[in-house]
Structures are given as structure tokens and as C-alpha cells.
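Q: Sequence in, structure out?
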Amino acid sequence: MASNSGIVPEDGESSKNAALERCLNVFRDASNDSEQLAALLLVTKAVKAGEINSKTRRRIFDAVGFTFPNRLLTSKEAPEGCPQHTFQALGLTLLACFCTDPDLARHAQILNKVPIFNDVISSPELADASCHAMVDDTYQCLRAILATPKGPRELVNRGTLQALCAAYVNHCYGSEQALQLLVGLLTAVEAKCWQRATLDLLGVLNLLSAEFQKAEDVTKFKLCEVLPRFVPHLLPPSAECLPALYRGLSSILTSKLSPAQRDPALKLAACLSQACGSKWVPPGSAGSKFFALLANLACVEVRLTLEELDLAELGKKQELMAACYVVMELAIAECTREKGSLLHDAQKVQLAGRKKPEDPFVFASVRILAAWLAEETSSLKQEICDLLPFLIQYARMQFEEERKSRTGAQRESEQAGQGSAQEPIWRGDALRFLLPGLSHLTAEDRPREILISEGAPILLCQYFLHRWEKFVLSTETVSASKSVENSLQTSCEIFLNFVVTAPDLISREECFAALMDTLLKSLPSLLPQREHLTLTANVTTLGLMMAKRLFAYPGLQGTPEAEGFFVAAIRFLADAYVPQPGPDGEVMVLSVNPAYKAAWPAIRELWFLSMQAFASCVPLFLWLPQDVLRSGWLQELLASLGRVTPKSVDMEIARAYQGILVELARASQPCLEMIQQHQGLELASLHGMAALEQCLSEQ
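A: Exactly. Output:
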């Protein structure tokens, strides 16, 4: 049942709310400060801030407001027989209650109390147990402010950062709460914190480092997680904290620990390595052994994580992986340093000298790099260019090793009298992962030049032919077969980039002739398989674009394979658009073939590019117009244009058809006559094909 004040008691809260309401009524009816104070004391006894809901807290605020708490905080006297800070404690208790409401926590009346909060938490005079509740209330106010959007900046601007540092360094009551707030501020506004209070934060870092070194229990591991927040971006080798941090990390990493205990230590080591290189590790035998151990731990962690190749798990370990790579980078720098290196020659050889290219760690690292290149090639352009020769060399090494193992397996099978060898397991297919990135890079001038100079086109052609053989045989699982198909499609994209941007390369490198032969032979059998329509579009487009450049190649001079390819290409192009009844059912419209619709978003641009390429091939291959006539495409196209409403044939489609019709009319008298017999001039005018209209008018 609702009380007179409008508060609706919850189950188990009726008596408490009734008592609170009586106290608030007394406060409102008080005639002087003494009566108000007495009422407020009753309020604080009736309920604690953490035990009431937001509605009740707001009710208290509406009754009390800020005026009276403000007077309490600034009062210099205490009631007779009471502790010195009684008034301030009462005021802070009320503000702590108010601050649990986010709207009140960012109120100007709360923010202007921050200097008072700072004094309370950093005052050694409040160490007495009678003042602990007052300090706790103050920390509750500060935590509430920190949680607001602008809270971190407000606290830094109003001096809380320095007060928190003083509270921790001077071991004031609540110093652990001060440390938590410092971590929160550094997380939210790190740069601003270091800009405002560098010396204060370094003081905290020095104390934390000493505690880290001395601790022999779980505290050591907790500090290991906190310390990276207090390490600045740059630390001088003479920094006071470094010896203690080194000794603390050494005691952790030389012990047998669980990953949960070891991983924070690796992150802290990486943080120090970024701040001051290897200078935090002392020279000498002990430091050398420790650094070699640290580098080895990082290498092992990366290898184990990347070999799992579980993307979900890898996502959880991003910070750890980044830390390990920082340590490995520093280890590489030490390995290449001739003078003053932390590592002895034997340690250098152990870390880097005998790393084999086929090592799974190298493959895993290349795979991660390839995933990044697939998404981003605009950043670190020079670094990417510098790395491309190694990536191509590495991919070539893997491909050749696989080819050798396949040949060996086939030879052993034949000697054993078996028909065909079982396909050996391909441990590392770096090219498969590099293909998406190469698709981006071959569209850019500088990376493309490097790839060509490193022989990448030849390697890619060999790889395509190998993968095509696996695709045709279809001996793999559905998922593996789909992976092969995706690799073939991406390879086609790369070759198209070469055809468009480096056409001379196509006629210069013999490997492209072998690729052309495969495309000519493969498209006729691929075309009927509509589940592979996207691959069909890629093969058709690439084949037509290459045929433009290789028109003098003997394999394209009217051979059965060439004619079979072009007949299949004609069918692919012809079937894309068909007349269908419009929405009203009264007129026919030109629409995408239902059989093409699912794949159309992926192949639309390829179809238009194929149409342009086919039109360019018509004058190059004298037998091609006759194939067009025999296929019936010309008749179908003209009949379709005559049946559909012109509004359904947009400008881009009209231009594509016009390109084909103009070239056929110019190259072949029978085609010209066929176009004229089907009212080609009228159709050209009807569909806005000006070039075709002019061509037919001139005949």
C-alpha cells in the first residue's frame, strides 16, 4: 500500500521505508539547524545508500537537496561530545547516497566538491577508525564521478589524480581504493594523466615495483596485472623502478606456473620492452639467461596459439599475442646487434639461426599477416612492399615442396602396382591465404611491379593449374572443395588485374599460354554446373580478356578447344537476361534469368566486362560471327529486344548489347542481314542505341 509520501514499499521494505519517510517529514518540518541535523542523523541510521533503490534515493535528494550538505561540509565545528569531523562525515554520507544516481553524479554541485574529496582521501589525519566510513563515502563519490562520460577529465582537471597518488604512496586509509581509481583514470584518459601528473604517477610506479618485487603470494600476480597501466610510453634506463621490476619478473618467469599466472608477466615484460627497449634487463650472465628465457617463452606461446588456428581462442589472446610479438621483435634486434647485445652467440643461434622456413611458426605468422593483408593494404605500404619478396619466395618454397611430395607419392604408387596415389596431405598452403591480399596489391602500381619482378605471375599460374586439377577431380570434402573454388575465383581476379594493368605481361610470359589452354578446355564442362556459376563467370571473363591479348596464339586459331570455349561463353552471356512478364502481367520486361539471380550480385560486373571483351574479340577472330549465328544468340537477342518494353532495358544493358551488335554488323555480312531482317534499325532507335543506328544507316 502506498505511503502518504508516494513511496511504494517493496516486499520486506515496508517498515524501513516508513521509518525513512518519518525522518524526512521531521527534516522538512524542522524549524532550525539543530532539528534538521537530528533528522538527518535519523535518515542515515534508517537506511544506508547501498540498501535502497534509485527511486528512494531520489526521494531523499528531493527532500534534502544540496544546500544543507554543503553547509555540513564547510562547517568547522562539531557538536559537543562528537568527533571532530561529524558534520563533514554526515555531508559525505548524503553525497555518497546521491552519487549512486548517475544524473546526480555529474551534477555541478557534486563536481565542485571534488577538491573536498581530494583533501579527505589524501589526509593522514583521517587514519583513525572513526573516520573510515567518511573516507569510504568519499571514494564512493569519486567512483560515481569516474563512471560518468565526462567524469575522468573532470577528476584530472580538478586535481584528483595527484590526491590519489598521494593517498597510495602515503599509505592513507583506502589506498587500495585509490589504486583502483588510478587504474580507471589511466584507462580512460592515459595521455592527460601523464601530462598532468608525471612525477606523481612515477612515485606510484616506484612503490608498486618495490611491492611487486617483495611479494611472495597472490599479491605478486595481482600487481603484475596492474603495473602495465603505470608504465609510461618512455622510461629512461636509470628509472628507479626497473631493477625491482626485473627481479619481480625474473622470479615469476623462472618458476613453474599456470598460463593465468605467466601471461600477465609476459604482457608486463612487453610493456617494459616498449618503454625502454632491453635496458630494463641488466647486463651479465643472469640478465642474458633471463632474456633468452623470455624470448623463448614468447616464441613458444605464439607458436602454440597460432598452430591451434581457432579464431575464437585467438581473439581472446590478442593482447597476449601482441605482447609476445613485441618481445620477439626485441629478441630479433638483440640477435642482430654486434656489440652490447644481451645474448651470446650460442643463444642467438638457438633463437633465430636455425629457424627453418617449413617451421609451423613461420607458416602461422604468414597466415596471420595474410589475413591482415586481405582487409588492409593502404597502411604500411612501404613495409608491405619490403615484405613481398619474402612472401612470394616462401609461398613458392611451400608449393614446390608439395609438388615434389605429390610426384614422389605417385611414383611409389606406380611401383607398387596401384592405379593412382592417394593425395599427400598439404601441410602448408601459404598462397591460399595470400590470394585475397594479392588481389588488392596487384591493382596497385608499386606492389604489382615487385610481384612481377619476383616471378609471382608464373607461380600463380602454376598454382591455378594445380588447384584446377584438384577442383576437376573433386576428391575432397565439400568444405575443402569450396575452399579450392574460392581460391580459383580469387586467382582469376588477380589475373584480370594483370591483363588490365600489365597487358604486355600476358603475351610475354609463356605460363599464360598454358593458362589460356586450361580456360579454353574447361569452360564447356563448367558451364552446365549452375552451382559453380560464379566461377563460370570468372573463367569466362578472364578467358575473353586474355583472348584479346593472345589473339595470335595458335591455340585460338579456330581450334576445337577455342570454338568450344566461345560457344560456352556465348551461352553464358546469352542466358543472363530473358524476357519475362512484368508486375502487371500485361507487358514483357527484360529481367535477370532466375537461374542467375542468386549469384548475380557477385557476377554482374563480370558479365558486363565479358560483354565488352566479347565485342572486342569479334573482329579479331573471323570465325566467331559464324559461331554466334549458329548458336542462335543473335536471333534470340533481337527477338527479346523486340518483345520487351524499352523502359526495362536500362542504359548499361543497352550499351552492352549495342557493343556486340555493332561489331557483328561490321565484321559479318550474314550477321548484318540478320540484324536488318529483325528490324534492327527500329530496335536501335527504340532502345536508344545511337551507335548501332548509325552503323546500320551507313550500310
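Residues 59 and 180 are 31 Å apart (CA to CA).
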